[in-house]
Each structure stands twice: as structure tokens, then as C-alpha cells.
Amino acid sequence: xxxxxxxxxxxxxxxxxxxxxxxxxxxxxxxxxxxxxxxxxxxxxxxxxxxxxxxxxxxxxxxxxxxxxxxxxxxxxxxxxxxxxxxxxxxxxxxxxxxxxxxxxxxxxxxxxxxxxxxxxxxxxxxxxxxxxxxxxxxxxxxxxxxxxxxxxxxxxxxxxxxxxxxxxxxxxxxxxxxxxxxxxxx
Length: 187
Fold this sequence. Notes:
The protein has 8 helices and no strands. It has helices at residues 9-21, 26-62, 67-73, 77-83, 85-115, 122-143, 151-172, 177-181.
């Protein structure tokens, strides 16, 4: 085996897993455990991202105010259309825009998680934290006054996100004793 020092962090991480799997020692067990935790965290995060896509599809397909929006403003979309058709059109555009953003964040998050985070890429962890966390957390807080939104679902998804990002962080930023003692990885 020849050393390969110009590989990215995840390439070295994955190479070290395959290198140690054949040895049957402590490091093999540790690497397998890290891989399982990363896979579990990735699956949880992808589930959260899929809900974002689903909500986006519902918003785009409906293209109108949801029941909780109507309850907040005190009138139905039909009544709004009668009173102010341009405002009703703008509301429909904003709902579709929100749907598009939900889908965009969801699909981008799925790609980052699948292609980066599950391979222990640090950039992917940061992108997931910022992309999903900065969008989801404030969105829940900002839309709270509107009410009616399925808050139980939003809170459960937020808790799942925090747990999964925490699990992934443990594995993405942790270095084994072997990784710390050597800078040469074999490929």
C-alpha cells in the first residue's frame, strides 16, 4: 500500500474504515460504530428534509392561503378575493413562493446530507446546520403568531434535527487515537 496524503478528509476517513475493517481490532469496531451513527443521523436528517419537500408541494399545489392563514387574518381566500383581488393574488404568489423555498431547501439538504454528511465531510455538517437550522428554527419562531400550523409536527422535526445534527457532529469532528497519531493514510 502506498501513502496518499493529498486526499480530502472524508476520503481518508473512508479509506481508514476500509483499511481497519480487515484487521478485526479495536479500530475496526470504532470505525464501524462511527459509520453506523453517521448513517443513522443522515437518515433522520433526510426524513426531516423530506417533510420540507412535502410541505412545499402542498403549498404549491394549493396556491392559496391555508386554513391557519385564513384563521389568522379572519377571512377566507374567497372573501379576500372579493374584497381585494390583487391582495388575494399576492397571497397566492407568496404561498407558492414559500412552497418553492421549502422544496429547494429540502432537496438541497438531501443532496448535502447524502453526498457529504454521511461521508463525514465537515463542510456538509456546517451546510446542514446552516441550511436546515437557520431556515427551520427562525421559521418556527417567526410564524408562531399565525398559529394553526401543525406545531406538534414542527417541534418533533426540530427535535429530530437537533438530535441528528448532534450525533453527526460527534462523529464528524471526532478523531480516533489512530487518526491523531498519524498523518499518513493508506489507500
